[in-house]
Amino acid sequence: MRIYERYFARQIYLTFIFILFAFSGLFFFFDLINELNSVGHGNYKFQYAVLRVALQTPSRFYEIIPVAALISAIYVFAQMAANSEYTIFRVSGLATNQALRSLLKIGIPLVLLTYLIGEVVGPYTDQLSERVRLEALGSSVSSNFESGVWVKDTLTARADGEQVTRFVNVGELKPDATISNVRIYEFDSKFRLSNVRTAKSGKYQPPGHWQLTGVTDTQLIDVPPPPGTPADALNPVYRAKEVAVPEYSLRSELTPQILSVLLVSPDRMSMFNLFRYIQHLTENHQDTQRYEIALWRKLLYPFAVFVMLVLSLPFAYLHTRAGVVGMKVFGGIMLGMSFQLFNTLFSHIGTLNTWPAPLTAATPGLVYLVLGLVGLKWVDRH
After folding, report:
1. pLDDT tens digits, residue range 108-141?
2. 38-65: b or e for each residue (b if 16 or more CB lie within 10 Å)?
3. Which end of the chain is more exposed for a tag (fewer CB within 10 A), N or C?
4. What element of type H or E holds 241?
5. Integer CA distances (angstroms), 133 to 30, 152, 289, in order
6. Within the chain, what is the greatest distance between any pair of CA atoms?
7. Closest Cα to residue 155, out of 145, 165, 147?
8. Residue whose C-alpha is closest to residue 53's, from 77, 33, 69
9. Where in the chain are the domains?
C-alpha cells in the first residue's frame, strides 16, 4: 500500500470497528428484549437468553458489515472534506479513478471477513444458539404442520433394481439430531403404496443409515384375483402383514445435515449446506427457488462491501457547505438501510415471481453500484 492508502485504511478500519460493535450492541439489546418472552418457560433462564443472543452476534456482524463499511467510509471522507484534507490529496494529484481503486483495495479484507463469518462462524453459532434454546425449553423442532415435517426421500435402487420413493414424516427433531415419532410411507416404481413403517425414535449411523427403534413394519402385498376373474386396476386387493421389531436399520439418502435446515433459516445457512440441500430437493423433483436465491445471495452479499465503498466516495467531494458531517453520516445510514430493505424485498419478489436466482440476488447490488458510479461522476464534474 502507498502512504495515502495506509492512511485511508487506518482511518476507515478504526471507524469501522467502532461502528460495527456499536450497531451490534444495539441489535443485541433489541434481540435480548425479544428473547425475554421465552424466559421462565421450562428451564429457560435469563442466562440462557443472554447466551443465545450472544451466539447470534456473528450473524449480526455478517448483516451489518456492508452498512458499517459505508458509514465508516462516509464519516472518514466527510471529516477529510471538512478539514480540507481530501482537497489537499486531490491537489497533490489523486485522481478519482485512482482513489476508487485504492478504496476497493481497502475493502478486500472486509469482503474476506464477511465470507469467513457467513460461511464458518455464523452458521455454526446459529445452530448452537437454537440448540441451547431448545434444550432449555425441552422442545423440539418441527415445521408448521401439526404432524411435523415431511421430507421426500428417493433411493436410487433396491436390491432387485427397482426404484423406491419414500415420504418420511418426522414428528420431532431433537437438538442432538435424533428423530422421534417417525412414519415412513414407501412406494414402488409404479407409485403404489407397498410399505408403511412407524418408529418411536431414530439415530443416524453413517454412512447412509438410520437406526430406528420401536419399529412397526406393515407390508402391503398384492392378492391375485381368483382364477378366471380379470384384475381390476382401479380396485386392487391387498393383504397386510404387520411385523414389530425392536430395531431396524433403514438405508436412506437423508442426513442430519439435511434435516438441520429446520434449525436455521436459509439466509443463515452456509453455502455448502445450501448446495447439498438444493441437490437433495432437485433429486426429489421439489421446488428449489427459495434456496437457490439464498445460495446466490450468500455468494454475492460479501461484494456489497465494494458497492458500499463506491457509494461512500462521492461524499469526499462534497464541501462542508453542502452539509455538516452529522448530516452526511445520517444520509449514509439511510442509504445503507435502504440497500438492506431493497435487497430483502427484491429476494421475496423474485421468489414469488420465480425469477432466475442469479438475477434476483445480483440486481440490488448492481442498482446501487450504478447509483454510486453516477454520483461519483456527477461530483467529479461539478
Report:
1. 999 999 999 999 998 888 888 877 877 776 555 5
2. beeeeebeeebbebbbebbbbbbbbbbb
3. C
4. strand 238-251
5. 17, 28, 30
6. 103
7. 165
8. 33
9. 3-138+289-381, 149-260
